[in-house]
Write a structure and sequence with these properties.
- The chain is α/β, with parallel strands linked by helices and 332 residues long.
- The protein has 8 helices and 14 strands.
- It has helices at 26-33, 38-63, 68-80, 98-106, 118-128, 197-205, 208-211, 241-257; strands spanning 87-91, 132-140, 144-151, 154-160, 163-168, 173-176, 187-189, 214-220, 224-229, 234-236, 267-269, 275-279, 287-290, 319-323.
- The strands form 2 sheets. The chain has an 11-stranded mixed beta sheet with strand order 6-5-4-7-8-9-10-11-12-14-13, covered by helices on one side. Strands 1-3-2 form a 3-stranded mixed beta sheet, with helices on one face.
- Strand 8 (214-220) and strand 9 (224-229) form a beta hairpin.
- Helix 2 (38-63) runs antiparallel to helix 3, helix 4 (98-106) packs across helix 5 and helix 6 (197-205) packs parallel to helix 8.
- It is elongated.
- The protein starts with 25 loop residues before the first helix and ends in a 9-residue tail after the last strand.
């Protein structure tokens, strides 16, 4: 009797799977591209986290009423750990002294980063000079303050009590002006004239043709303007922004039809909206040169070289009267 011998299936040993190399993430690739070592990056991250935690601890201490001495001690400890201001970067300066800004920003009770008051630095700088309109202050851990100064632009020269000074568009005093080195800016004269800088510019904008010919403007009696032109004549305007603008526009129209400036007149007065009074040497009578709606009347006897040319007769033109300049003439 023969038996059948069954052979078992030979099992082959299982080969271990090869592990594929993990692909570096985008963050890892970015970090490896930085020109700093991995140890430096870890150290910087530690500083940043420590600083953020320190600021948070001080804020919580203040919120829960923990005594200021404890908060200060914590802040100083964080400063000793490396979070102390050792660098101040200043931007935005065009006219001010860099060293002055640095000294004010660095004048702090403590230079430990958590204890530096950004708002105090801003207020100290804004109150220091009229040049500074605003300041933005921020921290850059672990040791840098960023100070961005916004300076005002000079808008005009203010002459008051014999003193000249640059002023900004809002009338803020900026700095003295050397009479021998006057900048090419409008000149406003008289007490409180600096406070009228914005209305004054609006007034000149009403008559663009005359804007470039105005040399200075005197704020009279804290209520009205008298303009002085480059050619030497003065123009007394009425009170009120609207009335003054209308008078200036009318004068510009008259000067455009038949030039008045540069013709030997001493000055013009438009405080009375119904007439334009012109002052010129040699005129012996007060007589209308141009009446609205009528032909020009006889011109007063004057020197031939100084005879004024009548403005065109228009129904809307103010009455033009030539008068002799006397010591009683006033611009009040």
């Amino acid at each position: 009797m023969s038996g059948t011998i069954k052979r078992g299936t030979v099992r082959r040993p299982v080969q271990p799977k090869r592990k594929q190399a993990a692909k570096p993430s985008a963050i890892d690739r970015a970090l490896s591209a930085l020109p700093v070592s991995e140890a430096t990056l870890h150290k910087l991250a530690t500083w940043t986290i420590t600083g953020a935690v320190g600021v948070g601890v001080i804020a919580l201490a203040s919120w829960f009423g923990i005594p200021a001495a404890i908060g200060t001690a914590i802040g100083e400890g964080i400063g000793d750990a490396g979070f102390k201001v050792t660098n101040i970067q200043i931007t935005g300066l065009n006219r001010m002294d860099h060293n002055v800004i640095y000294k004010i920003a660095a004048n702090q009770p403590s230079m430990a980063m958590p204890l530096v008051s950004l708002e105090k630095i801003r207020q100290d700088l804004v109150s220091h000079s009229g040049w500074i309109e605003d300041v933005h202050v921020s921290r850059r851990l672990p040791d840098t303050l960023l100070v961005n100064v916004i300076e005002r632009e000079p808008s005009a020269i203010w002459q008051n009590k014999g003193q000249l000074a640059l002023i900004a568009a809002n009338g803020t005093w900026l700095e003295p002006v050397d009479p021998q080195a006057m900048p090419d800016l409008p000149v406003v004269i008289g007490p409180h004239a600096n406070e009228q800088e914005v209305p004054y510019r609006t007034l000149l904008d009403a008559a663009p043709a005359l804007k470039g010919q105005v040399k200075a403007a005197t704020w009279v009696g804290n209520r009205r303007w008298t303009l002085t032109f480059e050619t030497g004549e003065t123009l007394a305007l009425p009170e009120g922004d609207t009335a003054a603008a209308k008078a200036l526009v009318k004068f510009a129209q008259l000067d455009g039809v038949r030039p008045l400036l540069g013709k030997g007149w001493l000055g013009f007065d438009m405080r009375d909206p119904t007439r334009l009074v012109a002052r010129k040497p040699g005129v012996t009578t007060n007589k209308a040169i141009t009446d609205p709606g009528t032909a020009p009347t006889q011109v007063p006897t004057v020197a031939p070289s100084a005879t004024p040319t009548p403005a065109a007769s228009q129904s809307s033109a103010p009455r033009l009267t030539a008068v002799k300049r006397t010591s009683t003439d006033s611009q009040a």
